């Protein structure tokens, strides 16, 4: 189902980047930026009225279905089924609104728009804040494999993404089992010791003005907790070119580090950019973050997710007889 695919792809792009690449501060900031929010531009509001890239029912058929209530019933039933499916998937409050041109087009998988609203849900055991996903272009899907068409999208679709999350939810997410088991800070290649991994324990997050503060206990991966150090890191997340999230003005406080200011410079050079969304582009999807703000103990963001049909496998050319 498209609503689940849209939300799943967004999760894989953003959260997968967190657990694979980001380190201590990066994990905190990205986890928050996933579910923050901002207003949608007027251009995006009008995009849903773009001409569809497929043939819809004629005027007479459209009028009959509209004024008989058939289109309304089809949209309402599809919305209710999609809401139940998404609510079960995220285990939280969800609402899905499906808009079609008419019932017969909906039956053929042709959609005018879909809007998904989520609140107080979880993904893979990680709590999420308030999220809104809305398609801004008409699109078509294939419900079942048919002839040479596979199930899924058959036309590209652009999705506007908004969200909001509090610092309490961020801290709770970082303490969840599925996240804490994957958190790593730095990969250090030390002479004579080889590659060393540092693990984060008990991360706690606070939003202070336009900066984020992370308190954590840092140990060598697999080491005893009493062998680690306590660390406080402050940084300001900045969005550049809708593609990069940069952590600026990093400050580190720790009684166990001799010169925290020099260590902060080293960390800032090593980590940035925290996220490069361009590196996660695929043939079937691409994501860009258009707005990012940190204030009032919350983080807000807006972005665009482009989904495309799976490319058809290339057929091998027949060998020519010499």
Question: What is the overall pLDDT average?
Answer: 76
> Can you give the helix content as a percent range?
25-40%
Number of strands: 17
The amount of beta strand, in percent, is 35-45%
> Compute the gyration radius: what is it?
23 Å
Secondary structure tally, helices: 9
Low-confidence stretches: 13-48
Output the structural class.
Answer: alpha+beta
Q: For the record, give the distance between the C-alpha atoms at the N and C termini, rounded to a whole number.
A: 49 Å
| Biggest pleated-sheet summary | 6 strands, antiparallel
Order of helices and strands: HHHHHEHEEEEEEEEHHEEEEEHEEE
Total domain units: 2
Shape from CA axes? elongated
Main sheet strand line-up: 1-3-6-9-17-16
Structure report:
There is one protein chain. By secondary structure, the protein is of the alpha+beta class. It folds into 2 domains: 2-169 and 277-307, no CATH class; 171-276, no CATH class. Helices cover 30% and strands 36% of the residues. A 6-stranded antiparallel sheet has the order 1-3-6-9-17-16. A 6-stranded antiparallel sheet has the order 10-11-12-13-14-15, sandwiched between helices. A hairpin with an 8-residue loop joins strand 12 (211-220) and strand 13 (229-240). Helix 1 packs antiparallel against helix 2 (24-33) and helix 2 packs across helix 7. The longest helix has 21 residues, at 70-90. It is elongated and about 80 Å long.
């Amino acid at each position: 189902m498209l609503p689940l695919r849209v939300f799943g792809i967004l999760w894989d792009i953003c959260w997968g980047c967190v657990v694979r690449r980001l380190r201590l501060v990066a994990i905190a900031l990205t986890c928050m930026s996933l579910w923050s929010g901002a207003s949608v531009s007027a251009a995006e509001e009008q995009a849903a009225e773009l001409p569809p890239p497929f043939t819809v029912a004629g005027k007479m058929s459209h009028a009959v279905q509209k004024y008989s209530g058939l289109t309304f019933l089809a949209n309402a039933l599809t919305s209710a089924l999609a809401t139940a499916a998404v609510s079960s998937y995220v285990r939280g409050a969800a609402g899905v609104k499906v808009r079609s041109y008419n019932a017969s087009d909906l039956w053929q998988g042709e959609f005018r728009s879909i809007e998904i609203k989520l609140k107080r849900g979880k993904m893979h055991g990680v709590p999420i804040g308030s999220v809104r996903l809305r398609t801004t272009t008409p699109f078509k899907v294939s419900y079942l494999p048919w002839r040479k068409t596979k199930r899924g999208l058959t036309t590209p679709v652009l999705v506007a993404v908004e969200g909001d999350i509090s610092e309490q939810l961020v801290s709770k997410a970082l303490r969840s089992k599925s996240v804490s088991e994957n958190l790593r800070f730095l990969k250090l290649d030390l002479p004579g010791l080889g590659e060393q991994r540092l693990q984060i324990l008990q991360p706690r997050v606070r939003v202070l003005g336009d900066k984020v503060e992370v308190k954590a206990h840092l140990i060598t991966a697999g080491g005893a907790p009493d062998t680690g150090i306590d660390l406080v890191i402050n940084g300001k997340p900045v969005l550049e070119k809708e593609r990069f999230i940069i952590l600026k003005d990093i400050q580190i406080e720790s009684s166990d580090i001799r010169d925290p200011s020099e260590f902060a410079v080293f960390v800032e050079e090593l980590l940035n950019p925290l996220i490069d969304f361009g590196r996660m582009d695929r043939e079937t999807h691409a994501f860009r973050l258009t707005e990012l703000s940190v204030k009032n103990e919350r983080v807000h963001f807006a972005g665009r997710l482009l989904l495309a049909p799976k490319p058809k496998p290339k057929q091998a050319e027949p060998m020519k007889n010499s």
